[in-house]
Amino acid sequence: MAKKKNNIMLIIPAFLLMGTAIGVQMQSIIKHSITGLIVGIIVYFFLLFRNKKIKKTNS
Question: Which regions span the lipid bilayer (predicted)?
C-alpha cells in the first residue's frame, strides 16, 4: 500500500486565493488577501498540531 502524501501545506494558498476572490468582489483586494493569508497560516498550524496529537495517540 502506497504512503499517502501529506498536502496540508496547500491550505495556505487556498485561503489566500479565497481572500483574493472576496477582495475582488468587495474592492479591497489587499486587505482580504492578507486576511486570507493569516487565516490560512493559523489553520495550517492548527491542523499540524492536531495531526501530531492524533499520530502520537495512535502510536
Answer: 33-49
Left, alpha or beta for 27 (phi > 0: left; psi -120 to 50: alpha)?
Answer: left
In angstroms, the CA 55 to CA 26 distance is: 41
Contact indicator for 13, 37 with CB cutoff of 8 Å: no
Report the pLDDT averaged over residues 21-36.
Answer: 92
d(CA 45, CA 59): 21
Q: Which amino acid is at 22?
A: I
Mean pLDDT of all residues belonging to the chain: 87
In whole angstroms, what is the distance from residue 16 CA to residue 34 CA?
7
> Tell me: the pLDDT tens digits for 9-27?
888 899 999 999 999 999 8
